[in-house]
Amino acid sequence: MTFIAKAREAAARGLDVISFGVGQPDAPTFPHIVEAGIRALEEGFTGYTETQGIPELRKAIADYLNERYGAGVSADEVIVTTGAKTALFVAMAAVLRPGDEVLIPEPSYPSYASTARILGARPVFVPLRWTGRGFELDVSAVEERLTERTKMIVLNNPHNPTGTVFNAQAVEELVELASRRGIAVLADEIYDNFVYEGRFRSVLESARWRDVVLYVNGHSKTFSMTGWRLGWLVADRRLIPLLRFIAENVYSCAPSISQRAGVAALRGPWEPVREMVEEFRQRRDIMVEELSKIPGVETYKPQGAFYVFPRLARLVEQLGMTVEELVEHMIYSRGVVMIPGSVFPDKAGALHVRLSYALRPERIREGMRRFREEVENLL
Ligand code: PLP
């Protein structure tokens, strides 16, 4: 938010701002989904719904997960939420008590640590390993940090902010470790459709997911529906009454109109999603190619989500600046907005920046050209 404010200030000074800070697809919601929302309004479907979500939507979510991952999810194991963020909150509130510890691979989407703190629990960070060609999850490093107070491990895959798709073995080992130790896994797979190559392994493919997994996904990214506030939480049916109790007292139900639109989204056609993902693959390739031309920037090809998290350690050393100073300089001199890695909890990625490529290819090229020229000026 601080950097968005700075970007606004730069725009007010007359700069043409190119923001690589965006966390949502740039396309409007696809027309057949919008039409279903309008139909719901016109039919007067505007009251409260069941807290858990309308049955057609829960069935559509279960069908999606079963077709994709062979998960065997039943519609009564699904809770519809007001965005994935609320699903995270409900899941954490059900499991965590004050003083409990939550293990979070770092860098991470900031809500995990913030929500843990709101609930009086303590985030414990495990850095992802920077290999020079990307990031890896070291399950033995996770294991080393477990204590008798650890009640939850967060696994966000594909990963924000690094774009990493964790390998199947690491995912399987983590679920295995959690079940052996009786620890919940909060699996946030909101970017599961943004996978460009390699195989994505969902936690729901593990035979024993019901023992430990609280699964979070949603409509926001896949269908470009961030403002509709529609997420989902899936867990073993024995947990559902507690999760529903929390949901009922926090938000009553997800927006009725969005739920109807959400059914249309999942029922398809899926062609617009496939086209969008293909477009993002091309944008990623442009972004990585342009980044690799900038001296001192170590980059890599992320396999998923729509972010890249290059390392600027060499560059900032050569410039005698911090990453924050460089980011600020780029905003005010060239109108190019990047997110410094230090905004993510625990500062594990402090020598990196997060760049989103959810913008048109010509804007990516133009933003990267300005970044390169400014770096060359400064060096
Ligand atoms: N989880 C991750 C990893 C995200 O990146 C985001 C949004 O940026 C969310 C959850 C929140 O999604 P929603 O808008 O559905 O609440």
TrEMBL record:
One Gene Ontology biological process: amino acid metabolic process
Domain Aminotransferase class I/classII large: 16-370
N-terminal signal peptide: none
Coiled coil (UniProt feature): none
Enzyme Commission number, as recorded: 2.6.1.1
Gene Ontology MF terms: L-aspartate:2-oxoglutarate aminotransferase activity; pyridoxal phosphate binding
Names of the cofactor(s): pyridoxal 5'-phosphate
Quaternary structure note: Homodimer.
Family of the protein in this entry: Belongs to the class-I pyridoxal-phosphate-dependent aminotransferase family.
Protein's recorded name: Aspartate aminotransferase
Originating species: Hyperthermus butylicus (strain DSM 5456 / JCM 9403 / PLM1-5)
